[in-house]
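Notebook entry, structure prediction.
Reason for the run: the old model in the group folder had no record of what sequence produced it. Starting over properly, with the input documented here first.
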Amino acid sequence: MDEAITDPTTTDACTKLGVAGGMILEMAPELGRWLFGKQAEAVVGLVQTALERVTGSNDPSVQATLLSNPVAAAALRMELARITACQADNAAQAQTSMLTLPGNEAASSNAQRGEHVASGAALVSIVVLLTFAIVIVVAFTRPMTAGMEPVLNVLLGTLGAMSTSVVGYWVGSSAGSARKDERLANIAERS
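New structure, fully documented this time:
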């Protein structure tokens, strides 16, 4: 944290937030990502507005004093969490829109990741089906200790549902959808 204090943008944001700046970083350290980033000016404004709304004052000294009240501090924590969540959501949306732009390098790397996801689906499917088979074999070949029947029932039910999902994925609509997408990609390449 000492390095952050020597950073000019950190000092600038803390100066703008006044005496309450340090308290804010203690209450919501994750907010620092946006207080000292590209959106710093806007986020500092949001935090100042939240401070004024919670304390009813725009004087930094009065705000710091009022924030010693646990109720006011909790209210500010809620406001800071809301600001943090909004900033995280905005950053995620911006990142998603970057990945979906045509011709973007990120889009081509996203397609490469799709190949890894497909092999991951096959691996997960194998693990689920093998685990289900092993649990069934163990259930029918080993004696059960007292009280294990409910646990075994839940385990078998869960694994049975997962196995159904695996079969549905590979045989059902997901497989057909994947084949359709592959055919459309082939058609698009020929055009």
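Summary: Residues 105-190 form one domain.
The old model has been moved to the deprecated folder.
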